[in-house]
Design brief:
Strand content: 5-15%
Number of domains: 1
Structural class: mainly alpha
Helix content: 40-55%
Number of helices: 2
Order of helices and strands: HHEE
Largest sheet: 2 strands, antiparallel
Length: 73
């Protein structure tokens, strides 16, 4: 079961307790917001950069704001 499905079920159970089992709660909007937030929090996968020979590249110390030794997949 995915995280947002667990959240949806949990929230539905809470709303059942508060408003009764016949409530009409907008789950779709909440689930979409949860998915967007989770997607924004993901870190990009990175792998070591390689040169033409297949060896690992080193970081160029003259560019402190860029790390050439790593690249995003």
């Amino acid at each position: 079961m995915k995280d947002y499905e667990v959240f949806k079920k949990w929230l539905g159970d809470v709303m059942d307790v508060i408003y009764g089992p016949s409530h009409n709660w907008p789950f779709k909007a909440l689930v979409e917001d949860y998915k967007k937030t989770k997607e924004m929090m993901k870190k990009p996968k990175r792998k070591r950069a390689r040169n033409k020979d297949g060896r690992y590249k080193g970081d160029d110390k003259s560019t402190p704001d860029v790390n050439e030794a790593w690249e995003n997949e």
